[in-house]
Amino acid sequence: MPTRLQTNAKAAALRAVFEANGAIAVEPPILQPADTLLDLYGEDIRARAYVTSDALRGEQMLRPDFTVPVVQMHMAEGADPARYTYAGEVFRRQENDPERANEYVQVGFEIFDRADPAASDAEVFALIADALSGLNVRATTGDIGLLMAAVDGLDTSVIRKAALMRHIWRPRRFRQLLDQYAGNTPVSEARQALLSSGPPVLSAPLVGARRQHEIDARLAALRADADVAPLAAGDVALIDALLDVSAPMPQAIALLQDLSEKMPAIGPAVARLEARQSALSALGIDTSTLVFEANYGRTSMEYYDGFVFGFRASGRTDLPPLATGGRYDALTRRLGGGREIPAVGGVMRPGVMLDLEAAT
Known about the structure:
9-stranded mixed sheet; 3-stranded antiparallel sheet; 15 helices
């Protein structure tokens, strides 16, 4: 296991590479306001955040990653376009795996640029791939935007689309909802009774924060949803076919082009993937062997909404990813008060890199 001194030295060297490619070094505070950040991370990170309270500043948390604080900083005062890099500790509680680090060093590179999103995607990926050259790693790519587009194109209610969209990053719950909306899941007797006509007769006092009008509104929404026609079996099959796409990028694009003839809603996302492939090739990435999985990235950060990627050590399932990243355009809009800018970034773990170097 590398020492802290060795890890910090590796992190400094990686950050210098990004600085040499035009990034400005930044260092967000270790202690971050918790209210906004906790809403933006996925369930896994949210559950493992170190949260404390401050009499003046309210709930605070040790930063679980750098991207959200960097986006906040950029949307408040950053230039357009901009590139940033950083290196420092992030913190995540561990309750089930004592071997998993609860504090480790992260190095990252973020691009905010409107000019050519595909080129920005390729730049981040290529720089990280180059920094990992010499190590026995394999890369996987994906695109959350494909599934988001497929959901948006479904012939169903706005409420059902919103529920599916909210659970894209929770594959099990997404599958349950898809089956439920397709009419493949039987409705329980208790729920059927609630959906029957007439107001519910409550024989017990209200307990908890919900008031009677909120309960009535929820019941009304459930009854309205029960009247929505089931998703067509063909639409569900197409989403399954989309999520099953896993192949080298050129073959994956061909499969997705075929699917887009039956799912026109994914056409623009497929075009963005084609543009990304061209940009990657232009930077010397061999896309003929670069794996694309449409299902990839659905258990990572919930702010990713487009290109996603990860690098893992080949044959070393005991090691966490050496690098991960993706596109998060919608996050800039949320933190920018309506303003937005296309943005993509990636993070690396120098400690894991050193572990792999020592083993080879």
